[in-house]
Amino acid sequence: MQTEAQSNVIELDNYRKDKSTKPSIVRISSELDGLEALYSNDLSNEKLFTIKILFWALLDNGNVCAIIPWLKDIITTNELNNPSTGQWHGYYDQRLDRIMFKPPEFKVKELELGHHYFASEDLHKESRLYLKNPMDACPEIKDSKQELPDHLGTHAAFKHQDKKGFYLKPVISWKLTLDGSLQAMTIKQDSNNITPLPGSEDLEPASNDENFRYFFQHGIASRLKKHDPDTLTAVSLLIDLV
Known about the structure:
This protein has helices spanning 105-119, 121-130, 218-225, 229-240, and strands at 9-11, 25-30, 36-40, 47-52, 55-59, 64-70, 73-76, 81-82, 86-93, 98-100, 144-149, 155-159, 166-170, 173-177, 182-187, 203-205, 212-216. By secondary structure, the protein is α+β, with helices and mostly antiparallel strands. Strands 1, 3, 4, 8, 9 and 10 form a 6-stranded antiparallel beta sheet that branches. A hairpin with a 4-residue loop joins strand 9 (86-93) and strand 10. The two termini are 36 Å apart.
């Protein structure tokens, strides 16, 4: 099979997936080994496409699945189930040229152990022994479970409010909120901090801006920043449709 640098398409075989509804996310872990998700669509002519995985997620039903930015949402691979726009078929490890239908076991264990540790009642009891106010040690826990840096070069596209066109903002981090949803954190418009870290007060959810339109991974964002005419035209038409 060709790598993504050569082609992000492979021949479609008889791959199948389990269908499930969207449960709540309880813990996330970054995908740092280059594993990808496989998907097809009605126009793919029996080909599979790859997309880089952002996170692995432990769901409140005990299942583990991959998470990817998809159009204007951040979704689990189980949600990629529409043949016309994208249908998930499995995971791909290009280093071993291997297709998998389940998350790697070491990621499952990492998520389960991490969730058990931070959800442990014993841990909360122990923290109260040493801290007058446990929130003083980690103030961001008030409104989130985790906040991890973006490692894929994800960008959010926003439509100009008073004129044609759009602009890009890098996603600095992803915040897992207490209700189990993920928020893409970008730099506030009025911030003078151009290098904020995850958890910074200079960040805000992209979804807070009514002009937010789509997420783009590094490849598309790079072509847009280089003013590639075909990419600019295609993305401009896409954004104008919303």
